Backbone:
């Protein structure tokens, strides 16, 4: 089957760095995206990786290794407002259907 | 730029009743998506439109769910009759085009449905 696996929960301290991992299994590969969702809010796009390597956007970075079917989201200088759920997602196949992982709940402690 | 609009934000109904959700995507976005998000899970795609045509509805329970996007802009999602397991947040999203499915989708605030 096609799936994306993420840890269910991660806890970190304000100001620290945290890494959220995602391993995927899809029939083809068309890139890996990351979304943030605060409780009761809408998912918002964070980043997209089509090729291997690191993409940096401010405090957030995303990494992809296609040979390992693995990616991660790196959050630096954690702030309390970063407490949210983070989802990795990928097109299921060339039909453009996007599938999401079950999400990682990040709790940032003071 | 206005975001994706959805209404209502909350809805409580009895099982076997009907309910409809409305979505207005970002202006100029050709592709529109409806997702179901059950508490503690990631969004699950129900149906995807390109303009007013259906691209994919393979995960839409067609015996009770229907959706339309008649003029290629607004869309409605209907459930008739509702079941207890339909309790979820229904998210609408849009992207500039189908290729945007891969890159970035813009989500609305969702409609939280509770079926009693």
Residues:
């Amino acid at each position: 089957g096609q799936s994306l696996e993420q840890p269910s929960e991660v806890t970190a301290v304000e100001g620290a760095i945290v890494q959220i991992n995602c391993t995927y299994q899809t029939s083809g590969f068309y890139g890996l995206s990351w979304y943030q969702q605060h409780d009761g809010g809408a998912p918002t796009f964070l980043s997209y990786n089509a090729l291997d390597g690191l993409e940096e956007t401010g405090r957030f970075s995303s990494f992809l290794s296609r040979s390992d079917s693995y990616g991660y989201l790196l959050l630096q200088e954690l702030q309390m407002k970063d407490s949210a759920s983070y989802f990795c997602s990928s097109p299921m196949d060339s039909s453009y259907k996007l599938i999401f992982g079950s999400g990682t709940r990040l709790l940032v402690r003071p | 730029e206005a975001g994706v609009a959805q209404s209502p934000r909350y809805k409580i109904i009895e099982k076997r009743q009907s309910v409809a959700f409305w979505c207005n995507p970002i202006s100029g976005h050709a592709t529109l998506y409806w997702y179901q998000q059950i508490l503690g899970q990631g969004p699950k795609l129900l149906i995807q439109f390109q303009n007013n045509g259906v691209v994919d509805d393979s995960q839409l329970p067609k015996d009770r769910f229907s959706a339309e996007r008649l003029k290629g802009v607004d869309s409605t999602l209907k459930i008739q009759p509702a079941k207890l397991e339909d309790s979820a947040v229904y998210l609408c999203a849009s992207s500039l085009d189908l290729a945007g499915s891969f890159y970035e989708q813009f989500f609305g605030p969702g409609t939280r449905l509770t079926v009693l």
Remarks:
- Chain A touches chain B through 22 residues (CB under 8 Å).
- The mean pLDDT of chain A is 92.
